């Protein structure tokens, strides 16, 4: 599905939800005012004035939505008792003033009996009625906030479970790679020695693959840290292997500055983002090569940038996105308060910038717990 159709479907879905909400509100108001009118007919049928009834219904509904949408804060924002109190007082005063003017005009047109003769009684009943609809609005607002909070909690739990599943899958993949590693590397060494006679480039490719797999196994403890320089070398090996694969017709630029031997990082965060760029990026386009930039400044402040032109793909695989979900889960687990990631995902290009502070894993756990 193209982006235009997707946006159209989203807009239609939103319009349908809005229409449904409006209908629900209209039906609820109809039922409520039928109840109010039935109650008035039973108690004081002789005092019903239809013009006054319709005008007051309109005024009460207007006050309800002003309290709900203006006096009370939006979902997610902090409550400010003073601000809410001031706005409720302002609304109540405006309600009383408008009702007074309406009653004056209706009495002047002989559409209402004298209800302003006893001003204290008029004010008390008006304030009571205004507060009544303010409480209705507050109850409706509280219900909406509660539902949104519950949805947010459910969504967060689902995301958490999904991330756990992704992390488990990655760990299982690492465990599979650990099966008899000595046999694997001995076999690769044998193939390398035999391949060198046939093709030097083929032999170098096998050696690079061996180094990549060795590093993946050595750093398989996902709860520890690795040397940043080793991560850099691993990225270089990945790039080199892809160049061998496409006979040097693979356009990718990787530059780094400020990396020191003392710098450490939780493994596979940077590498996964590079693999993501190689999987979805068009490395064969010389005009728009995949660009990767890594810098460490002011001691331990790391910046990692990746930009690539997207490959044209007709259909997305259900496993697409697992790499970035893994990266985000790792960042949240270890660098929750010490990183910021920005992603710009357009139709043709994908850009990512990660800013983070390089802190030892043991120190990170202490800081996150505090």
State the main characteristics:
65% helix; 370 residues; two-stranded antiparallel ribbon; 10 helices; Heat Shock Protein 90; elongated
Backbone shape: elongated
Q: How are the strands of the biggest sheet laid out side by side?
A: 2-4-5-7-6
Helix content range: 55-70%
The count of helical stretches stands at: 10
Order of helices and strands: HHHHHHEHEEHEEHEEH
Uncertain segments are none
Average pLDDT number: 80
Distance between the termini: 46 Å
Largest sheet data: 5 strands, mixed
Strand tally: 7
Radius of gyration: 33 Å
Beta percentage is: 5-15%
Describe this structure in words.
- Among the domains are: 130 residues; 121 residues, Heat Shock Protein 90 (2-Layer Sandwich), CATH 3.30.565.10.
- With 370 residues, the chain is of the alpha+beta class.
- The protein has ten helices and seven strands.
- The mean pLDDT is 80.
- Strands 2-4-5-7-6 form a five-stranded mixed sheet, with helices on one face.
- 14% of the residues are buried.
């Amino acid at each position: 599905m193209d982006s235009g159709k997707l946006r159209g479907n989203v807009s239609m879905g939103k319009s349908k939800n809005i229409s449904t909400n409006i209908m629900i509100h209209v039906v609820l108001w109809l039922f409520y005012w039928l109840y109010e009118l039935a109650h008035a007919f039973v108690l004081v049928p002789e005092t019903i004035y239809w013009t006054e009834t319709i005008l007051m219904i309109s005024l009460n509904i207007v006050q309800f939505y002003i309290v709900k949408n203006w006096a009370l804060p939006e979902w997610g924002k902090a409550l400010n008792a003073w601000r809410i109190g001031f706005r409720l007082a302002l609304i109540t005063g405006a309600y009383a003033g408008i009702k007074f003017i309406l009653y004056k005009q209706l009495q002047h047109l002989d559409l209402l009996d004298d209800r302003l003769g006893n001003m204290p009684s008029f004010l008390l009943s008006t304030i009571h009625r205004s507060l009544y609809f303010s409480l209705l609005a507050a109850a409706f607002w509280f219900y909406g906030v509660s539902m949104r909070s519950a949805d947010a909690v459910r969504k967060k739990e689902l995301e958490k479970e999904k991330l756990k599943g992704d992390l488990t899958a990655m760990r299982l993949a690492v465990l599979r790679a650990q099966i008899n590693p000595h046999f694997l590397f001995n076999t690769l060494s044998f193939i390398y020695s035999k391949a060198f006679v046939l093709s030097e480039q083929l032999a170098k490719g096998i050696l690079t693959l061996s180094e990549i797999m060795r590093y993946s196994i050595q750093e398989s403890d996902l709860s520890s840290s690795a040397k940043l320089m080793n991560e850099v070398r691993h990225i270089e090996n990945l790039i080199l292997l892809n160049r061998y694969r496409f006979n040097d017709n693979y356009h990718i630029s990787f530059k780094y500055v400020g990396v020191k031997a003392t710098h450490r990082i939780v493994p596979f965060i940077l590498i996964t983002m590079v693999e993501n760029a190689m999987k979805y990026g068009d490395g064969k386009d010389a005009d728009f090569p995949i660009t990767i930039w890594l810098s460490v400044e002011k001691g331990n402040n790391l910046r990692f940038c990746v930009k690539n032109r997207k490959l044209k793909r007709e259909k997305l695989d259900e496993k697409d996105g697992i790499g970035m979900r893994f990266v985000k889960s790792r960042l949240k687990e270890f660098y929750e308060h010490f990183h910021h990631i920005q992603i710009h995902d357009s139709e043709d290009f994908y850009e990512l910038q990660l800013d983070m502070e390089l802190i030892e894993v043991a120190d990170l756990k202490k800081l996150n717990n505090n």
